[in-house]
User: Which sequence fits this backbone?
């Protein structure tokens, strides 16, 4: 697999995050005249993506649940910039906007605002190794933001206190393109929300937060100003139902929970390993993954050994998947240092973990519980689930159990358990790391496929041109 890190990052928006279905009750119907909910959106990993693995994104998943709640079809209408998006809502081309839009005074006057989804900070972004301004007055380079973005609103507000503050605005592009300009040195700074930065650092680890320009900005959906409040009323009812069900907490954990811990050195090393090490073993991960996504298996292998088939630890685990002797024996591995045997054994053991989990754990979350069990043991995970339940939380929701696992290191809690002390905090870090590696592998894999498809189209076009030239030549010869 060849590096596609900078050359095709602008196609990053084709990547997909893993889609997860959440059961919900349909309790309301739309007026007879509306059979489709048209949702205006923007492309982005935390907003909306449509790839070979299906549609995904925080806003998409909430929109899908809302459409199901209304018992109608969902149509996602994606735009290339905010101006077009807002114009579409004002002209009733879409029913609602769901695109990680932050609340601003102008938007409050222009549209009706839905309830708050979550909060973000507006942050100034620069490239590691370059000058880091510690306050707004120290900005001394080229700053560019998207037109009609909340970042532009933040800068306008700051300019009242810092009259010398200047910036450029651009349209018909995405935040990711601006970030790539920062990485390539074509731009000194940009401003965006903190969640987008965290997600982007998985692929562009050179990006850094210089300072927070505005804290705790509300992110919400927008409705048209002319809306008769029917849709708003239904949206509020849906919001209260999903709030009680914990849907927003679940989606926050899914899309943002594992990216809040950033390690520059580790991220750079992983990107290099994808280019230099993974090609030797990718076929084996694909061969033995079975029903697992091979990229989850590969991410686990990297977390275990950095894809080193001869890795050893002082505790006695060895090989690509770092199997113990008893585990290796249970899955028929007689040479733990053989890469193929280790990958096969690790895949089989991880699959068995998934199968052994209680049926109450939803299919879309079983992999995270299984990975925690792979790391710390199924017994300790069950101990954490029992404590989770005793605390009034959901023992079958990874977002709740990951809060409790670190408590197994405290005598107050592990003395009450069957299996005793465990380094549960490490298990949580282990799972979060694998999720980050997996996200990066999905991105690289999708970009590679996109590049291959683009090259194929170019080859086909070149072939057509050659054929056309040959036909023209034959025609000319015949005429002569």
Assistant:
């Amino acid at each position: 697999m060849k590096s596609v890190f900078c050359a095709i990052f602008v196609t990053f928006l084709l990547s997909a995050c893993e889609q997860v279905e959440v059961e919900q009750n349909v309790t309301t119907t739309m007026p007879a005249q509306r059979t489709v909910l048209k949702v205006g959106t923007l492309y982005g990993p935390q907003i909306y993506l449509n790839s070979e693995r299906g549609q995904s994104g925080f806003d998409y998943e909430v929109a899908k649940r809302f459409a199901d709640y209304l018992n109608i079809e969902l149509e996602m209408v994606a735009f290339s910039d905010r101006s077009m998006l807002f114009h579409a809502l004002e002209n009733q081309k879409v029913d609602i906007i769901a695109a990680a839009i932050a609340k601003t005074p102008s938007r409050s006057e222009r549209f009706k605002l839905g309830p708050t989804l979550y909060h973000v900070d507006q942050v100034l972004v620069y490239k590691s190794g370059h000058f880091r301004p510690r306050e707004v007055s120290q900005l001394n380079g080229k700053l560019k933001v998207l037109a009609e973005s909340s970042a532009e609103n933040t800068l306008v507000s700051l300019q009242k206190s810092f009259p010398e503050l200047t910036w450029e605005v651009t349209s018909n592009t995405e935040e990711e393109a601006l970030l790539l300009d920062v990485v390539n040195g074509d731009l000194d700074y940009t401003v965006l929300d903190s969640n987008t930065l965290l997600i982007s650092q998985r692929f562009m680890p050179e990006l850094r937060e210089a300072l927070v320009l505005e804290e705790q900005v509300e992110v919400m959906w927008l409705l048209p100003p002319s809306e008769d409040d029917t849709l708003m009323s239904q949206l509020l009812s849906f919001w209260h139902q999903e709030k009680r069900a914990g849907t927003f907490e679940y989606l926050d954990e899914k899309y943002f929970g594992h990216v809040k811990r950033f390690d520059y050195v580790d991220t750079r090393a992983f990107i290099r390993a994808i280019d230099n090490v993974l090609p030797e073993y990718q076929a084996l991960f694909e061969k033995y993954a079975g029903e697992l996504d091979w990229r989850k298996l590969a991410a686990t292998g990297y977390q275990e050994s950095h894809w080193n088939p001869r890795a050893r630890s002082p505790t006695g685990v060895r090989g690509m998947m770092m199997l113990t002797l008893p585990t290796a024996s249970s899955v028929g591995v007689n040479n733990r240092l053989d890469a193929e045997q280790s990958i096969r054994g690790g895949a089989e053991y991880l699959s068995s973990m998934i199968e052994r989990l209680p049926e109450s754990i939803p299919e879309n979350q079983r992999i995270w519980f299984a990975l925690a069990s792979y790391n710390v043991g199924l017994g300790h995970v069950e101990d954490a689930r029992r404590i989770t339940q005793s605390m009034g939380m959901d023992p079958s929701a990874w977002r709740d159990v990951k809060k409790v696992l670190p408590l197994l290191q405290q005598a107050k809690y592990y003395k009450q358990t069957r299996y005793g002390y465990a380094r549960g905090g490490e298990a949580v870090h282990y799972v979060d790391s694998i999720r980050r590696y997996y996200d990066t592998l999905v991105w690289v894999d999708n970009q590679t496929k996109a590049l291959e498809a683009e090259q194929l189209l170019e080859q086909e076009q070149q072939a057509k041109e050659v054929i056309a030239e040959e036909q023209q030549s034959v025609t000319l010869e015949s005429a002569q």
Q: What stands out?
A: The longest helix spans residues 424-479.
